[in-house]
């Protein structure tokens, strides 16, 4: 009671025993119980603090993505204003719903400011910030860079609107076939996308995206070009040439390479090298 009365901004106190949080004491509930009646202090004042604990605690590891924390709290059966944070199973700290909402709002505002207007996905700045934070915190992740092949001749032949539909298709497939709880997707300009994978299935996700794009890409062409498996046209020098159907290349920087990087620029260089090694077809290379 002295602690709550002395700290005007103190709203809760976690009770920890042997590195395990036994529960939380909330200021409003604690003082209400003591002062709700004139005999409150006499009835409860000599009891141990454990009788005031909120027993049902939701706990998250300190490396749990913010989005996952939000989803689980949204579906929780009780609406406590705070939750536990653990590290390697031991008590690490307390998070509050207000703090979580402020963090999510800040991220959303920043992402919106730098979002790609076509896909509304985060752009270069928030994705680079995310990479740098993960590197600084030593969190393991892999990263994939997506790039369309033969996109320019397609856009020149079918128009900008058709080109936008291709880009939106890529964005849709990446979102559909990525584990959104542990993946961060960005549209960093033109026909270039980036995905940060904080799970082990990133390569398999990429395989599925490539297979689905290969299946759907021919539908973007008219029947004649679809039967020809490409476009007959002219290159920049005016020479007649043939452009194959759209395809997708992915350069992947695996975890074992990421751990040797210190900034997003180093990772970008590795990804660019991986993409350049990919042949001119739907393919990926680590």
The total count of strands amounts to: 12
Name the overall outline: elongated
Please tell me the overall pLDDT.
Answer: 85
- List the total number of helices: 12
Low-confidence stretches: 279-286
- Computed structural class: alpha+beta
Ends distance: 59 Å
Radius of gyration: 26 Å
Descriptive tags:
single chain, 286 residues, alpha+beta, five-stranded mixed sheet, three-stranded mixed sheet, 12 helices, disordered C terminus
Strand-helix topology:
Elements: H1 2-6, E1 12-17, E2 20-26, H2 27-35, H3 40-44, E3 59-61, H4 66-74, E4 82-87, E5 90-96, H5 97-113, H6 124-136, E6 142-149, H7 151-158, H8 160-176, E7 183-189, E8 192-197, H9 202-216, H10 223-228, E9 230-234, E10 240-244, E11 247-253, H11 255-258, H12 264-277, E12 283-285
Parallel strand pairs: 3-4, 11-12
Antiparallel strand pairs: 1-2, 4-5, 6-8, 6-11, 7-8, 9-10
Q: What would you note in describing this structure?
A:
There is one protein chain. With 286 residues, the protein is of the alpha+beta class. 43% of the residues lie in helices and 24% in strands. The protein contains twelve helices and twelve strands. The protein has helices spanning 2-6, 27-35, 40-44, 66-74, 97-113, 124-136, 151-158, 160-176, 202-216, 223-228, 255-258, 264-277; strands spanning 12-17, 20-26, 59-61, 82-87, 90-96, 142-149, 183-189, 192-197, 230-234, 240-244, 247-253, 283-285. It has a five-stranded mixed β-sheet with strand order 7-8-6-11-12, sandwiched between helices. The chain has a three-stranded mixed β-sheet with strand order 3-4-5. It has a two-stranded antiparallel sheet with strand order 1-2. A hairpin with a 2-residue loop joins strand 4 (82-87) and strand 5. The longest helix has 17 residues, at 97-113. The chain is elongated.
């Amino acid at each position: 009671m002295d602690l709550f009365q002395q700290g005007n901004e103190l709203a809760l106190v976690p009770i920890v025993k042997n590195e395990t949080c036994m529960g939380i004491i909330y200021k409003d509930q604690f003082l209400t119980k003591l002062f709700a009646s004139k005999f409150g202090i006499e009835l409860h004042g000599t009891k141990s603090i454990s009788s005031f604990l909120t027993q049902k605690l939701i706990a998250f590891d300190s490396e749990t993505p913010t989005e996952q924390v939000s989803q689980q709290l949204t579906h929780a059966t009780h609406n406590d204003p705070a939750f536990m944070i653990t590290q390697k199973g031991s008590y690490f700290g307390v998070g509050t719903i207000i703090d979580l909402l402020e963090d999510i709002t800040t991220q959303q505002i920043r992402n919106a400011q730098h979002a790609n207007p076509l896909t509304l996905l985060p752009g270069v700045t928030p994705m680079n910030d995310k990479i740098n934070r993960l590197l600084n915190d030593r969190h393991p992740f892999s990263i994939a860079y997506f790039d369309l092949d033969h996109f320019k001749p397609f856009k020149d032949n079918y128009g900008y609107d058709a080109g936008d539909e291709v880009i939106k298709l890529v964005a849709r497939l990446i979102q559909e076939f990525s584990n959104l709880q542990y993946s961060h997707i960005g549209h960093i300009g033109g026909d270039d996308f980036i995905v940060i994978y904080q799970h082990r299935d990133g390569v398999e996700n990429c395989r599925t995206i490539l297979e689905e794009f290969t299946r759907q890409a021919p539908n973007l062409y008219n029947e004649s070009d679809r039967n020809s498996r490409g476009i007959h046209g002219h290159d920049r020098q005016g020479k007649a040439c043939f452009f194959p159907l759209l395809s997708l290349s992915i350069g992947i920087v695996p975890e074992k390479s990421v751990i040797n990087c210190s900034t997003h620029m180093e990772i970008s260089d590795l990804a660019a090298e991986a993409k350049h090694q990919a042949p001119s077809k739907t393919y990926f290379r680590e």
